[in-house]
């Protein structure tokens, strides 16, 4: 039994490396056995769900995108995408395969690198527009059009996230306030549960539903962002930064930093610090 079917549109690669190249897009009509794993993906994947519900995993975080959702899987990370056999409707989605460091940089700049799933049907119109153009335009022209559509999608998703920031429930605002004040100490789920008055499972479900990311991922990225600032703006050593952020093991911290940024703290400092 085949795992999926659907059209694939391929555009010619440029004669030289470009910061963003989108040479493949298509639609997956998935059977219940559909599974796609990339252990350290060389491409960034964007998807828009047309129907049904599936499962996506980015590193250690799993989500269940459904109709009207966009999922974002940056390059250099572990990707797992598979159908939900219990979904009432078949899982069908439009996908873009994107190459280039600029794609990852843009997702990070617009704070989408950890927002694996964003519900935004208006962004879905841009995905559908890309498929329509692929059916009518010359492949060479699509190579120029697709990066523009990608940027439009990124901006649309970012705007949607920002618009929703002011509409978080009182509980999620309270969770975020607590977490923002815990960046310099080890994360403790029991303390969070006691402060909020809900089980950690309930907190994580609520937080993930409204923010598009897990509590752990939120805390981790806050720590990574703080580490970046200290690497660039202070003379603190990597070990000192590690302890300052509540980690006891510098090697563990360095591995986490590299997993999320693609480079070690020392290399990040040397490549980005201005003299």
UniProtKB/TrEMBL annotation:
Does the keyword section mention Transcription regulation?
A: yes
SMART domains, per database record: HTH_ARAC
Q: Which UniProt keywords apply?
A: DNA-binding, Transcription, Transcription regulation
Start and end of every HTH araC/xylS-type domain?
Answer: 173-271
**Transcription regulation found in the keyword field:** yes
Which Pfam families is this protein grouped with?
AraC_binding, HTH_18
PANTHER family in alphabetical order: ARAC-FAMILY TRANSCRIPTIONAL REGULATOR (PTHR43280), HTH-TYPE TRANSCRIPTIONAL REGULATOR EXSA (PTHR43280:SF2)
| Protein name in the entry | Arabinose operon regulatory protein
Q: Which organism does this record belong to?
A: Paenibacillus allorhizosphaerae
Upper lineage: Bacteria, Bacillati, Bacillota, Bacilli, Bacillales
